[in-house]
Amino acid sequence: MINLPNLRRLFKHDEVEKWLKSIEGPGKKCFKTQMKIYAPTCYGKCEIAVKELIAEVTDIYKGSTVYDAEGAWTTPQGQVETEPIKVVEMAHDCTNFEEGERLARAVTAYATKAKQHSISVHQGSFYISETPEMMKALKKRFGET
Predict the structure, then answer these.
(1) Which of 83, 114, 115, 117 is most deeply buried (CB count within 10 A of its CB)?
(2) Which of 18, 35, 42 is nearest to 103 (CA)?
(3) Could you tell me which of 118, 117, 44 has the C-alpha nearest to residue 85?
C-alpha cells in the first residue's frame, strides 16, 4: 500500500499536492473532475502494461475513453523525438482515498513495467511526474535496492 504522505514527497508539483489533499481525510471525499493519463506505448513493446493501466483506470472510475496520439519532446541534444501514446481519459463525480491510492499504484506500476522516464497526467492543470526520481523514492520507501 502506498502511503500518501510518502507519495507526496515524490512529486514536485503543486497540482499533485492539491489533488492528494482534496481526497484525503475526514470530510474530504469527493470532487468533480476529468483526468487524462498519457501513456507511451514503447513502440508496441509495452502494450501489456498499457492495457493493464487502462483496465485498472476503467475499473476504478467505471469507464474510460482511450485514444491514440503522439507524444513529442526535445532531447538534451535539442532534437525532437516522437512516440505513439495512448491517452486514457476518465471523468468522475467522486474519488475517495482508496481510489486515489489505486490510481497512484496503477500509474506507478505502468511506469515501472514500461520503463518510462516520465508520465504525464492532466487534471485541470498539467504536471509531469519524473519517474526515475519517483521510482528511486518508492524503492527506498519499500526497502528495495
Answers:
(1) 114
(2) 35
(3) 44
Task: Quote the CA–CA distance of 105 and 133 in Å, as a whole number.
Answer: 16
CB of 87 closer than 8 Å to CB of 36: yes
Tell me the CATH number at 115: 3.30.70.120
Please check whether residue 38 lies inside any domain of the structure.
yes
The set of cell numbers assigned to 107 is: 500509474
pLDDT tens track, the chain, 145 positions: 444 455 445 544 555 666 666 655 555 444 456 789 999 999 989 999 999 999 999 999 888 999 999 998 888 898 999 999 999 998 766 677 788 888 888 988 998 899 887 778 877 644 455 566 666 665 665 565 5
Count helices and strands in the chain by DSSP H and E runs:
5, 5
